[in-house]
């Protein structure tokens, strides 16, 4: 047991000015040289590790929850689409990226002596955690950029070829530059980790964060502008229903705006001093928000008709019941319904003279009764099926 020197042998201290929480520390390097540090450095390291650990733990839970929701709310026929595969892979790999990073924070690299002295003695397991987390970070970034490019391509499918190729060329080039610089930063970081050298923050790492922020903000501007322009055009055509396009726009604003704001705030020093883990939230926010727009659009697209009014749920129930009753009609009628385009095409069935015709229950989605010779066009371009007596033909 170490003996404590008597108080008289210690240097005199002024109790009025002495703060025991701010003391200088003296440690020895492996070669016997003296290294000076202080308790403030230990406290900042403690806060850094705790805050990043909480952040990555929350990211693991959020990514796992959304991955489960994505699988539950996506139909089987859509699980083979490229956008679903990319979003699912982003969430899956991001979970493991956060797990390995959390293991790194609790490993030997974060030992107080190693941090104060700069001499690292981490084990092979700690090195593997660091290298794996860096590699997964590049893979997740690549998948996120691919998902963003695919969604921008879909959003710009109605534009001219020249505009589409210009937009895709600029955004893709920015994404490739960001991925390339991040890959170079990963290589340098892994080399320093294997050699147990403190690399610090160099220009390559700074350029990696800057190009990533530029790419995210650029995709945000293009994606939000294109969807907003499409909604304006629909309003000019008197298409005022609240449907998948509006939901994709709302979720797209959230999807792209939040990561863009986080990407910009990580370079603002006052915010970075208060929230040092804000930069680690950019990729995870993209992985989480990207599938949300697809999920909401898919749920909205399941309904045959989209309404803006306060009783939209009543119209939805009536539309569903109307679809069921039309299928139980006369056997001589043939109805084809293309749900992907929200368009219904129907043929007329003829009844014998004297048969009772009750058209009151055959209105589509609870609409008012139309004339025998009318074509009822609903808000989603649906044509109502009607029966015409032989005496009118």
UniProtKB/TrEMBL annotation:
InterPro entries: GPCR_STE2, STE2_TM1-TM2_sf. GO terms for molecular function: mating-type factor pheromone receptor activity. The chain crosses the membrane at residues 54-73, 85-107, 127-153, 165-186, 206-227, 247-268, 280-299. It comes from the Eukaryota. One of its GO terms (biological process) is pheromone-dependent signal transduction involved in conjugation with cellular fusion. Signal peptide: none annotated. GO terms for cellular component: G protein-coupled receptor homodimeric complex. Keywords: Membrane, Transmembrane, Transmembrane helix. This is Mating-type alpha-pheromone receptor PreB.
